[in-house]
Amino acid sequence: MSSSFQLPRELDNRHATRLLKATKPGDRLGFYAQPAPSQPTQVTEHAHTADLVILTVSGELDTVAAPLLRRNLHRPLPACTLIDLSRVTFLGVAGLRVLEAAAALARSERRRLGLVTAAPGVLRILRLFALDVRAPVYLRLADAMREVALERPSRHPSPFS
């Protein structure tokens, strides 16, 4: 049984690069050779009320983008903060660490923090690392806003608690 396809004995980098380049804009390179569609990660702030801010994250929350979210979270924030992750396409360890630190900081400052996502991959990561135990996770932003409006923590602890 013979095959008409034979691998070249020596393949230098220039030849390999030439093989992966599309010659015309319509040429397809195959799944693994396609560059990943990369849109920059964005963090958008929506001041809903004086006591509620919503941070919407879109794109990949990885090592490159995590500092952007960290900057938005490590400043004076109102009593309630919702982080909308429903447009996040990838949640890496660096992003997870920023979310964990935000939950710990909110807890220490007696503020409320909620996460919003229905993306199965993001939910899986949040559950796997038990972040859903440290900060409530909502599937819809409307549900999160309703819950936060009902249960607002006091900034100053009661002397009787």
Notes on the structure:
It is a single chain. This protein is an alpha/beta fold and 161 residues long. It is 34% helix and 23% strand. It has six helices and five strands, in the order αββαβαβααβα. Strands 1-2-3-4-5 form a five-stranded mixed beta sheet. The N and C termini lie far apart (82 Å). 23% of the residues are buried.
Mind describing the biggest β-sheet? 5 strands, mixed
Helix content: 25-40%
Strand-residue fraction? Answer: 15-25%
Query: What string, H for helix and E for strand, traces the elements in order?
Result: HEEHEHEHHEH
Keywords:
161 residues, alpha/beta, five-stranded mixed sheet, 6 helices, 5 strands, 34% helix, globular, disordered N terminus, disordered C terminus
What is the fold's blueprint, element by element?
Layout: H1 13-20, E1 42-49, E2 52-61, H2 66-73, E3 80-91, H3 93-108, E4 112-116, H4 120-128, H5 131-134, E5 137-138, H6 141-150
Parallel strand pairs: 2-3, 3-4, 4-5
Antiparallel strand pairs: 1-2
Helix pairs in contact: 2-3
TL;DR of this structure?
The chain is α/β, with parallel strands linked by helices and 161 residues long. It has helices at 13-20, 66-73, 93-108, 120-128, 131-134, 141-150, and strands at residues 42-49, 52-61, 80-91, 112-116, 137-138.
